[in-house]
Amino acid sequence: MAQKALSKSIFVWEGVDRKGIRIKGEYEAQSEALLKSQLRREGINPTKIRKKAKSLFGGGKKINGKDIAIFARQLATMMSSGVPLVQALDIIAQGHDKPAMQKMVYGLKGDVEGGNTLADALGKYPEQFDELFVNLVHAGEQSGSLETLLDKIATYKEKTEAIKAKIKKAMMYPAAVVSVAFIVTSILLIFVVPEFQKLFNGFGASLPAFTLFVIHLSKLFQAWWWAIFGGIGVGVWAFVRGYKRSQAFHRMIDSWTLHVPIFGALASKSSIARFARTLSTMFAAGVPLVEALESVAGATGNMLYAEATRKMREDTASGTQLRQSMRQYTNLFPNMAMQMVAIGEESGALDNMLSKVADFYEEEVDVMVDGLSTLLEPLIMVILGVIVGGLVIAMYLPIFNLGKVV
């Protein structure tokens, strides 16, 4: 009778490779002892192994940007430690707790084992690996410096994902304020105000104008709540769909965003940071400036910056210096960024200067988001207090006047 197969668990491990470099990762194995044997066969001396705790809410099914950033860092770390590409992909796949990610990495491993380059294998997954990622890997393979390029890619992905997370955090606060305020108001108007209305019907006196307004608003919500909530849902769906599918609508929203107080500056600095970080990474990888600018355009996160970048590409292709082309867009690029680019071109260290520009504006985004969070936390309380307090006052005004009736 065949033995029942042992179930596998995911282990988090730390160890030292043959070069004495400390590395860590995740691996799926049947037991800790078998994992130790596997790591030793790969030339890794394990120093710490523990079973990975399962997430309370699950790991999620869809592959996101953070997964790709972690993948790039793991691959860069293992290859720089001397682990062969196919073996590194196998380790990453076995150690991942997201099925979709496991399937994709095993697919990459199969393609590489079949004789394809890593760049060709990555190109089969355009939703996960954009043109910029694939081009950089291709450049690394062609120049024989894949380990170095993977490290740059990993740093780039980590930086860009971090700034995306910061922007999402900043944008979520106003959405949270509006959503919470609307939900609280709806609950009060649909369930609480009608109870007060029953009480007011026995007063036999005229009600204050403010109270009457709230009662009429409550009746509107009770009668048409389905249309109000449905209309908001359809409106949000139409906005998201239009933003994704209509270039004109997308451009209008991106243009409007840049002019919104506080948030406009945040969006602008974020786009400049992405522009500089992406161009610095590609230029350092040996990608020609004209070719690099085409990939940079899609990474800025704003259509106005993307259009400006494509125009700069056309200018540089005809022999114009990047700094001269950037001067056409003083409304998008501040003087400091243009001066740093000019210094980089003059000194022959454009990638280094662009990296410094990216560092500066990423720090600016961090500071702005932290300040915005500090500002909006009490603002939420103020807005909710005004709304709830206003409704309470409207309901208690007739009770305050009850003595006059009696």
Automatic annotation (TrEMBL):
| GO terms (BP aspect) | protein secretion by the type II secretion system
Its chief place of residence is: membrane
> Where in the cell does this protein reside?
Cell inner membrane
Cited Pfam families: T2SSF
Segments passing through the bilayer: 171-192, 199-217, 223-243, 378-399
GO CC terms of this entry: plasma membrane
Q: Under which name does UniProt file this protein? A: Type II secretion system protein F
